[in-house]
Amino acid sequence: MRDRTGEQVDEEPAAHDPRCDDGWIDRDGDNPQPCLTCKPHLRPKFERRHRV
Ligand SMILES: [Zn+2]
Questions:
Q1: 13-24: per-residue pLDDT in tens?
Q2: Cα dihedral angle (31, 43, 38, 24), rounded to 10 degrees?
Q3: How many angstroms is it from 5 CA to the middle of ligand 1?
């Protein structure tokens, strides 16, 4: 497929959360979460241990 500039692109760009701020989603909010597009290694493996 081609993007609107006419360049060939192999696949759709990964959905990137528009709230992402320097790798964090809702960074200034009550419950910031790592942006898994920017920080895939931070994908949560465990239940959150701390409640806000
Ligand atoms: Zn991001």
A1: 667 888 999 999
A2: 10
A3: 24
